[in-house]
Amino acid sequence: MYDVRPNTIIGFHGCDLSVRNKLISDPNTVEVSSKPYDWLGNGFYFWENNYTRAQQWADDKAAKGEISSPAVVGAVLQLGNCCDFLDSKFTGIIELYYPAMAAEYLAANKPLPKNVEARDDAHKDKLVRLLDCATIEYMHKVVTETYFKDISAQGHSSSKVFDSVRGAFSEGGPAFPGAGIQKKSHIQVCIRNLNCIKGFFIPREEIDFPLPL
């Protein structure tokens, strides 16, 4: 009953300037991420209401030589049927899928993926989320297969395919000595159903308000 997130939110996506310009001029050219370590599974990623973190991410990529001109594109989003890990219902759901996935890996005599450290991360936040991504993608696979099987057999299904995934993360080390607040804490949104992206925009620079007399 409360799974659908009907409200509109703003997301920011860090990228190369060429990618930003392409999304602005041709907003249907969205390329989703399908890396095995995507934190919330495969999809198109945004930092929720966090321009600064998106810019930091792009700047870091540029410093590593992975992009040439760091930029940020904004987007208007509606999350639809959202697997929201800020909601205890969905952390409970993903917890149930893990044993089934682990059993499949064991039966296939394959090693289970693990979350591991990134080589350049001094804070040991296990930034390479291989296990999380595999478990979320396993959940999507089972849900989608069940949905289409039900549709084929009976014309309807009680299974609901997720449009998006949302999660909160703490990383980056303490904001000050002894703090529980982390420097890079953020809410991340992974869009699977691209119809959830209502449009892209170039973020404006803030102006002084009220204007001087």
What form results from the Cα inertia axes? globular
Give me the count of strands.
8
CA-based gyration radius? 19 Å
Helix content: 25-40%
- Average pLDDT, rounded to a whole number, is 93
- Unreliable runs: none
State the order of secondary-structure elements, H for helix, E for strand. EHEHEHEEHEEE
Q: Domains counted in the coordinates: how many?
A: 1
| Largest sheet descriptor | 5 strands, mixed, barrel
Structural class: alpha+beta
Strand content: 25-35%
Distance between the termini: 51 Å
Give an account of the 3D structure.
The protein contains four helices and eight strands. By secondary structure, the chain is an alpha+beta fold. It has one domain. Strands 1-2-7-6-3 form a five-stranded mixed β-barrel. The chain has a two-stranded antiparallel sheet with strand order 4-5. α3 crosses α4. The model has no long low-confidence stretch (mean pLDDT 93).
Task: Based on the model shown, name its key terms.
213 residues, alpha+beta, five-stranded mixed beta barrel, two-stranded antiparallel ribbon, 4 helices, 31% helix, 25% strand
List the helices and strands and how they pair.
Layout: E1 4-16, H1 17-25, E2 44-48, H2 51-63, E3 70-84, H3 88-107, E4 115-116, E5 128-129, H4 130-154, E6 164-169, E7 186-191, E8 197-201
Parallel strand pairs: 3-6
Antiparallel strand pairs: 1-2, 1-3, 2-7, 3-8, 4-5, 6-7
